[in-house]
UniProtKB/TrEMBL annotation:
Its cofactor is Mg(2+). GO terms for biological process: mitochondrial tRNA 3'-end processing; tRNA 3'-terminal CCA addition. Residues 29-152 form the Poly A polymerase head domain. This is TRNT1 nucleotidyltransferase. The gene is Trnt1. InterPro entries: Bact_CCA-adding_enz_type3_sf, NT_sf, PolA_pol_head_dom, PolyA_RNA-bd. Keywords: Magnesium, Metal-binding, Nucleotide-binding, Nucleotidyltransferase, RNA-binding, Transferase, tRNA processing. It comes from the Eukaryota. Residues 186-237 form the tRNA nucleotidyltransferase/poly(A) polymerase RNA and SrmB- binding domain. One of its GO terms (molecular function) is metal ion binding. Transmembrane segments: none annotated.
Length: 403
């Protein structure tokens, strides 16, 4: 039985009320999936999903009778009801069996059999349930696997994958999150992935990108991306056919501890701009992500630190010359990519200086034509830049007289 502080902390007034309602009606209610895995690892879960023997109709009736607010009905077809109590949402799903699966969607039938529900889940570490009394229900040795840091599919790997091909990427993601060593895979699992990789071609780009991003921020990322190439997965998820694996190895060695954006990590695979465009065509990445990828491919080689006392200057000059809003955040990602940890810290503490002279100042000095004002301001900006942005208004205006 689990009685950890993380588990005890889940018992908010909201959960106590929910538990009471289910108990009164003799419906079983347990914590399911990822939250169980987190709790067993001593981690506070980000969100908690619940599973129950009650059908959606029974839950709706029970909650409505108690005056509990129900929100968004989208999950109802799959058996999920979301109730809101005490400012907290509770997502509760009826136990189910997959009747028909096509590798993307499943048609489900409700059941009261906990073993059957566990059987249709992807990985053993995600197939456990936890009673509200702390009792663990584990049908596929998920807890053993978690303790031994093993990632395995529930039952036959090929069957689980064919139910939803996205599970290939979920395997990689959880491997990066839980496994201790890079090469600790079961041969038949890798074989099943290779034989079914093509199924990923039918999965939407958005779903793939969600999994890929999480994987890129986990451990063993270099090993896992190599594996994606070896097992023919890469081509179906928008990665370039001839990704630059050496560069990827080099960049991922130091970048994990700098909290990079997923796109920053992934760009190390890209040799040219087209690789970013093709990724976008397949995965429908956000505009911001696409722009970051293009920026890094363009500047990673030539925008580098200066030798001498001011290594950060080239980056600062770039920011000062740029007319774009989010240049600083792009430069931070570039420094992470380049592994420049100290310069990154320095840049994050730097305040962008404000150019101290305005057109108004020049008019006061008798410069009247707009064209002359524009030219003079540009000359003064150049002088200001040469001074390392240190010259103040007085110095710049006296400089103007010389010019």
């Amino acid at each position: 039985k689990l009685q950890s502080p993380q588990f005890q902390a889940l018992f908010t007034p909201g959960l106590r009320s929910v538990a009471e309602m289910f108990e009164k009606k003799n419906y079983e209610l347990r914590i399911a999936g990822g939250a169980v895995r987190d709790l067993l690892s001593g981690v506070t879960p980000q969100d908690v999903d619940f599973a129950t023997t009650a059908t959606p109709a029974e839950m709706k009736e029970m909650f409505t009778a108690a005056g509990v607010r129900l929100i968004n009905n989208k999950g109802e077809r799959h058996g999920t009801i979301t109730a809101r109590l005490h400012e907290q949402n509770f997502e509760i799903t009826t136990l189910r069996i997959d009747i028909i699966t096509d590798g993307r969607h499943a048609e489900v039938e409700f059941t009261t059999d906990w073993h059957k529900d566990a059987e249709r889940r992807d990985l053993t570490v995600n197939s456990m349930f936890l009673g509200l009394d702390g009792m663990l229900y584990d049908f596929f040795n998920g807890y053993e696997d978690l303790k031994n840091k093993k990632i395995r599919f529930v039952g036959k790997a090929s069957e689980r994958i064919q139910e939803d091909y996205l599970r290939i990427l979920r395997y990689f993601r959880f491997y990066g999150r839980i496994a201790e060593d890079a090469g600790d895979h079961e041969a038949n699992t890798l074989q099943a992935i290779k034989e079914n990789a093509k199924g990923l071609a039918g999965i939407s780009g958005e779903r793939i990108w969600v999994e890929l991003k999480k994987m890129l921020l986990g451990s063993h990322v270099s090993h896992l991306v190599r594996l994606m190439y070896e097992l023919d997965v890469a081509q179906y998820v928008g990665l370039p056919l001839d990704g630059d694996l050496e560069e990827f190895d080099r960049v991922t060695k130091h970048i994990q501890k700098l909290s990079p954006k997923p796109m920053t990590v992934l760009t190390a695979l890209f040799k040219m701009k087209d690789d970013v465009t093709n990724l976008d065509l397949r995965l429908k990445i956000s505009k911001e992500e696409k722009n970051l990828g293009l920026f890094l491919v363009k500047h990673r080689r030539e925008l580098t630190k200066a030798s001498g006392p001011e290594p950060l200057r080239p980056y600062q000059d770039f920011i000062m010359d740029s007319r774009e809003a989010n240049t600083i955040s792009k430069i931070c990602e570039l420094l992470k990519y380049q592994g420049e940890e100290h310069l990154l810290q320095e840049l994050q503490q730097w305040t962008v200086p404000v150019f101290p002279v305005s057109g108004h100042d020049l008019r006061k000095l008798g410069v009247s034509s707009g064209k002359d004002i524009g030219a003079a301001l540009q000359q003064l900006r150049d002088e200001w830049k040469k001074s390392g942005y240190h010259m103040d208004k007085e110095e710049l205006l006296s400089c103007l007289k010389k010019l």
